[in-house]
Specification:
Helix content is about 50%, strand content about 10%. It is an alpha/beta fold and about 325 residues long. It has a single domain, classed as SGNH hydrolase (Rossmann fold, 3-Layer(aba) Sandwich), CATH 3.40.50.1110. The strands form two sheets. It has a six-stranded parallel beta sheet with strand order 7-4-3-1-2-8. Strands 5-6 form a two-stranded antiparallel ribbon. The longest helix has 26 residues, at about 175-200.
């Protein structure tokens, strides 16, 4: 029994490391006018490796699926896909990108549709740093890091458990998670403010962060508390008061978290499997499909009727 617990904890810690290195992972402005559709016809995706479609290169992730739908169903303007999803991006990285990267800013300016998936790495990057510090690991390579954590476990299982207990103290992982949440809370309003100033009429769809663990599985609650805190920040920023005190929508929330939580199908939505030894928290093709369906339900509400195909492909991916 103890040996089994050690193995679970090992996989959990490696998972933290994997996510931070590969990246873990949004709303519309209903007040925008369709009169400028010809001028703002692009679709731009912003965020981390989930936005980039990590692990679903053939299907293009949820972004590729959304683009395919728009390409077939939108009229009156050309649609180009600009995917700026980038591995390991945190909210701070995204804020810097929308402020300083001229290619990203130009794409946003020309966009009619924008999706955002960000926040997972705010939680997982600091956790990885804490793991490295506790176990005296210096490598930044995700696979080497996983090997080093495994080595520590194999050399001294009991010592490994004590170190895990140390990490779980209030000044360990919980404190690091709190820092990540605080950072997101500071960055998020600035991200949306910047995007809105660049593209005031764009339709923006913001994805909530999903929990990579299945409801009821070991450690679900540990992940869920932190993920829920990030999502509360996202939800709280969806509206603002104008000068007349009226509530004005800033973006539309795509509740991927809830869709994943409510899922009862047999095929897993993420690749994360503690008992199976998988440390990859990214969506499976089915998971990306679920993200697509959840987004499209909202996007369809903003599309005029009688669409025809006029799209042309110009996909750019920032690695």
């Amino acid at each position: 029994m103890k040996h089994h617990l050690f193995r679970i904890l090992t996989v959990l810690l490696i998972a933290f490391a994997f996510v931070a290195a590969s990246g873990l992972a949004m709303a519309s402005n209903p007040g925008g006018s369709d009169n400028n559709a010809v001028l703002r016809g692009d679709y731009t995706a912003l965020g981390d490796s989930v936005a980039a479609g990590y692990g679903d290169e053939a299907g293009g992730g949820y972004v590729g699926r959304i683009y395919d739908y728009l390409a077939k169903n939108v009229k009156d303007y050309d649609i180009k896909l600009n995917n700026f999803g980038k591995t390991s991006f945190t909210s701070t990285d995204l804020l810097k990108s929308v402020r300083k990267d001229q290619e990203v800013r130009k794409a946003i300016e020309n966009s009619r549709f924008i999706t955002i998936s960000i926040g997972g790495n705010n939680l997982l990057s600091p956790v990885t740093d804490a793991v490295k510090k506790t176990f005296g690991i210096k490598t930044n390579d995700v696979y080497r890091l996983a090997e080093e954590v495994e080595r520590v476990y194999n050399s001294d299982p009991l010592g490994f458990l004590f170190k895990v207990a140390e990490l779980m103290q209030p000044n360990g992982i919980p404190a690091e998670l709190e820092k990540g949440i605080d950072r997101f809370e500071a960055d998020w309003p600035e991200i949306i403010k910047e995007i809105r100033e660049i593209a005031p009429e764009a339709k923006i769809y913001v994805s909530t962060v999903f929990n990579p663990l299945k409801t009821g599985s070991p450690f679900y609650d540990i992940f869920n508390e932190a993920v829920s805190a990030i999502n509360e920040v996202i939800k709280a920023g969806a509206v603002e008061e104008d000068e007349h005190g009226k509530q004005v929508p800033r973006y539309k929330i795509v509740d991927v978290y809830q869709a994943f939580s409510d899922y009862e199908g047999k095929s897993p939505l993420t690749k994360f499997d503690l008992f199976g030894g998988s440390m990859d928290p990214h969506p499976t093709p089915e998971g990306y499909g679920m993200m697509y369906k959840t987004h499209i339900e909202e996007i369809k509400k903003d599309l005029p009727s009688g669409n025809r195909i006029v799209a042309k492909i110009k996909a750019r991916k920032q690695k």
